[in-house]
Write a structure and sequence with these properties.
There is one protein chain. The relative contact order is 0.08. It is built from 18 helices and 17 strands. β5, α5 and β6 form a beta-alpha-beta unit. With 637 residues, the chain is of the alpha+beta class. Strands 1, 2, 3, 4, 5, 6, 7, 8, 9 and 10 form a 10-stranded mixed β-sheet that branches. It is globular and about 70 Å long. The chain has 3 domains: 274 residues, BirA Bifunctional Protein, domain 2, CATH 3.30.930; 186 residues, no CATH class; 161 residues, 2-Layer Sandwich (Threonyl-tRNA Synthetase, Chain A, domain 2), CATH 3.30.980.10. The chain starts with a helix and ends with a strand.
């Protein structure tokens, strides 16, 4: 079964069960400066799990584009990918365990066609210290479901993941694990949760590929073993508890379901092959590379390069489709690294100089566009096609020059073994990949001090991470009072910019912390001092006017007709959340609604009245960040 088959069947299956299909959010998080990329299916949905009403109701289903940069170095085995899709169905205070578990079991076995005897599940064993009971309700449901398939499902208590390597399978089908494995909250385990934080047990489903256990991972095998026999394919989270001020847990008045299923992993299970790179979206790229390189994917010497090119080009194509461009910072740096790493392994497979039409990276991107354009039409337009392939080709050409310069520097130090400092210099100063340093050194009988290089890279990563934490300190996701006030001021600022500079001004990015707001917007020249003052005066006037800030839910096309602002390139469902500043009624039928000072697609949070901004709005900086893009930083004193 191919990727598109699984996605379509899943969305339609839950639509038949009363769910509204909502589009994937962008890989670039909207109004969440705490992370560079959307890294899970839950990330864009979190406000609704925490109580914000969803515009589409209590049951929704989606397939969310996701990317995890931390997996870049892991790509090369049979299951790690950087870009992936998470199938998700969500219940906001509607159905719970007795519906969710039978539905997902039936989807996997009856719709996808997985053999029930190949499925194993895990559940929460309870936490005596926090008076949290074991999830016997889920166990009884699972036993019934397996029994209906003619399978006697015994439950086994494992405990920790480490315990699994000594206790083993014990002929079990249902396995109790501790809170580190089968409990979910944003903070982690129950003891780490602050007061007011929701959380709950989860139940994971694993597919057994039947491969022989590798004792190098532990004496005994179990579902969470890393030997490769089992692959987790999906997980149902049951948010049913709220931590109290005294440290105890109470049941949530509205209990939520948060399901996440790995699209590629379910497809791999449906094919009975643990290698996700044999699913259609990757196998077509690998076949292309095989045909033109005369190398075999089954040859272990080449397999890692095949996988890296296939994975990285899919991720790069989807990033480019969401507006990311190669650069030396943040998202652009990650994208650049993906393309250049692909180019490195493309060269390793024997591909070299040529024109754009000869590039295996460009051809791989075209395969991805064709595979995904029906699910994600934004990458299939003629403009997107040209921009994606042009950016990849430009980066590939530039990297070829970088490698040439790096080789010159390599020759200067290649008279003896390569120190960690020299390998680090080649990588950070000249962009010369460490793997290439190792390979060329090996060919010449030289050693490379890898431990010293890794130590320098770790130090570099720690510094970068600390810088990122400082940069994104107190991002909008914290919903603090200060951040919320600046979020509302951000809406006022955008409208004021349009009034002063013209209606062509559109938001191109934002970053809101407790200390200041930042907006990137389309405008072709530096603002004058007079224009800055005009903008400040408009915002401060709206603060003094004590205008109500009202949230409404209305059809997307109606919101667009009202002129509601929205993020460039973002996809929205048929029903949207809109915040308006100025009307005295929350009803979109009230003619005064269309006369609001500001109307924007937004999920919140906001103050309820501009008087709550309680201060003087001031622009602290206005500068260029790219061609035709300006940036303003502002505060409320």
């Amino acid at each position: 079964m191919n990727i598109n088959d699984v996605r379509t069947k899943y969305l339609e299956y839950y639509k038949e069960r009363g769910h509204v299909i909502v589009p994937s959010a962008s890989l670039v998080p909207q109004n969440d400066p705490t992370t560079l990329f959307t890294g899970s299916g839950m990330q864009p949905i979190l406000p609704y799990l925490l109580g914000e009403p969803h515009p589409q109701g209590a049951r929704i289903v989606d397939s969310q584009k996701s990317f995890r940069a931390e997996d870049i170095d892991e790509v090369g085995d049979n299951r790690h990918t950087t870009f992936f899709e998470m199938l998700g169905n969500w219940s906001f205070g509607d159905y719970f365990k007795s519906e969710q578990l039978p539905w997902i079991f039936a989807f996997l076995t009856d719709v996808i066609g997985l053999n029930a005897s190949k499925l194993y599940v895990t559940v929460f064993m309870g936490d005596e210290k926090n008076a949290l009971p074991r999830d016997t309700e889920s166990v009884e449901i699972w036993k019934r479901l397996f029994r209906e398939k003619g399978i006697d499902a015994a439950d086994v208590e494992i405990g920790s993941e480490a315990d699994g390597y000594t206790k083993g399978m014990q002929d079990g089908r249902i396995f109790y694990y501790d809170a580190k494995k089968n409990w979910w909250s944003r903070a982690g385990t129950p003891e780490k949760m602050p007061a007011g934080e929701p959380g709950g047990p989860d139940s994971e489903i694993f597919y057994d590929f039947g491969t022989e256990h590798n004792p190098a991972f532990g004496a005994e095998c179990h579902p969470n073993c890393d030997c490769g026999r089992f692959m987790e394919i999906c997980n149902s989270v049951f948010m049913q508890y709220l931590k109290q001020k005294d440290g105890s847990f109470a049941l949530l008045p509205k209990q939520n379901v948060d399901f996440g299923g790995g699209l590629e992993r379910i497809a791999a299970a449906s094919n009975g092959d643990p290698d996700v790179f044999r699913t259609d979206v990757f196998s077509d790229i690998i076949l292309l590379l095989e045909q033109f390189s005369n190398k075999d994917y089954n040859d272990a010497a080449n397999r890692r390069s095949f996988r890296i090119v296939a994975d990285h080009m899919r991720a790069a194509t989807m990033m480019l489709g969401d507006g990311v461009r190669p650069s030396n910072t943040e998202r652009g740096y990650i994208l650049r690294r993906l393309i250049r790493r692909s180019a490195q392994h493309s060269a390793k497979l024997g591909f070299g100089d040529g024109q754009k039409e000869d590039s295996m990276l460009v051809r791989s991107a075209i395969i991805i566009i064709e595979k995904y354009k029906h699910a994600y039409p934004e990458i299939g337009t003629e403009q997107a096609y040209e921009e994606i392939t042009d950016e990849i080709w430009k980066e590939e050409v530039q990297f070829a020059r970088t490698l040439a310069q790096g080789m010159k520097e390599f020759e200067k130090i290649a008279s003896a073994d390569i120190s960690g400092d020299d390998a680090y210099m080649l990588f950070t100063t000249y962009g010369f990949p460490f793997e290439m340093t190792q390979e060329i050194a090996h060919e010449r009988g030289l050693r490379v001090d890898e431990p010293a290089f890794r130590a320098l890279m770790e130090k570099h990563s720690d510094l970068s991470r600390a810088g990122a934490e400082q940069k994104f300190k107190g991002g909008l996701a914290d919903t603090s009072e200060k951040t919320t006030r600046l979020h509302t001021a951000h809406h006022l600022l955008l409208r004021a910019l349009q009034q002063v500079l013209g209606p062509t001004v559109k938001q191109r990015g934002s970053n809101i912390t407790q200390e200041r707001l930042r907006i990137d917007f389309s405008y072709g020249q530096k603002m004058t001092a007079e224009e800055r003052t005009q903008v400040e005066n408009i915002v401060n006037a709206k603060i003094r006017e004590k205008l109500p800030v009202i949230r409404s839910t209305l059809p997307k096309d109606q919101a667009e007709k009202l002129g509601a602002e929205h993020e460039f390139g973002a996809k929205y469902p048929d029903m949207v959340s809109v915040y308006s500043v100025g009307p005295v009624s929350a009803s979109q039928d009230d003619p005064r609604f269309a006369e609001a000072f500001s109307i924007e697609f937004c999920g919140g949070p906001h103050v309820t009245n501009t008087a709550e901004l309680a201060g003087t709005f001031k622009i602290t900086k206005e500068e260029a960040v790219a061609s035709g893009i300006r940036r303003i930083k502002a505060v409320i004193d």
